């Protein structure tokens, strides 16, 4: 029996409430001063929470493996990220409520900046605003290639979703995005004989798109990755007996919540908006996933100071969440995004679990170094959900 099967067997429906706060890309690495972003930030409320809780570090997938956002979040939701895979394209599509049809293949698109030699100088085109992306998407939308329609819609900032709709398509193809500057976009290659048509159509589309985008500097290129179809996972409510509410301003994370069957409620673009939405819905659900994107964006931009400021901004608002008095509160991240790396890292992520029945440890600060000595130890991220359920008294005893 795997973890999902065991949870389905043991979980109880109760009145207790759980709040899971995911500070995207939370973990960091030391800067020249020898401190991580969390160690640098003034976060007295997080530190106070840690001193009353049980803390530790978690690996989103396995030690040494750098996770994408999909595996990182699925692990936090209690799913084995090695068994439950989902492509970025589907997440982007679901996040904007795109009406996916059977057989659709979706890819996540990044508008990017190319130099005169076709080399990528900025994978995010200066994070062009969503309105600019919407104009560009409308010019790319509706291209037909070999009877396959290509649908393009803006997501947020530089991100678009590209959906291929037609017969005989496969998602077993490679990305065109090398995920590094200083390289040219890559051709899309078939992963097997069944995906040659998909690869050919994707490459034709990218060639046509490059001509359309040529005059749109800095968004004069398009990178595709995460070709995928809709997966089918065990439902969150079926497994955990929870009425779950997802609060996320960024489309992809709404998509992740939808994949597992959470109710995704409307919210605004800021953390204040998200906390307001949490308050408004607190009596309607018994599990809340609240997502904070800004930590990850700062880390990806290599902006150490901005990530510190985001953490401090969250800390100032933390009492508003604690004030709702959830029975169990978890604060962690889906992965590390150290500003010194400028991207996702394989490094373990701090986690704090707070509740009446937690056994507090000696940790008195919420950061990477302090959490190493916490009572949770070093655990797989997929074990956090059972811990939250247990501390909310939502698990029966296992065995006689």
UniProtKB/TrEMBL annotation:
The keyword Transcription regulation appears for this protein: no
Reactions listed under catalytic activity: (2R)-2-phosphoglycerate = (2R)-3-phosphoglycerate
Assigned keywords, A-Z: Glycolysis, Isomerase
GO terms (BP aspect): glycolytic process
UniProt GO MF annotations: metal ion binding; phosphoglycerate mutase activity
Highest taxon of source: Bacteria
A Pfam family reported for this protein in Swiss-Prot or TrEMBL: Metalloenzyme
Enzyme nomenclature, EC number: 5.4.2.12
Domain Metalloenzyme, residue spans: 17-390
Secretion signal span: none
Pathway: Carbohydrate degradation
Gene3D superfamilies the record matches: Alkaline Phosphatase, subunit A, Metalloenzyme domain
Function comment: Catalyzes the interconversion of 2-phosphoglycerate and 3-phosphoglycerate.
Family stated for the protein in its record: Belongs to the BPG-independent phosphoglycerate mutase family. A-PGAM subfamily.
Protein's name in the database: 2,3-bisphosphoglycerate-independent phosphoglycerate mutase
Organism whose genome encodes this protein: Dehalogenimonas formicexedens
This protein's encoding gene: apgM
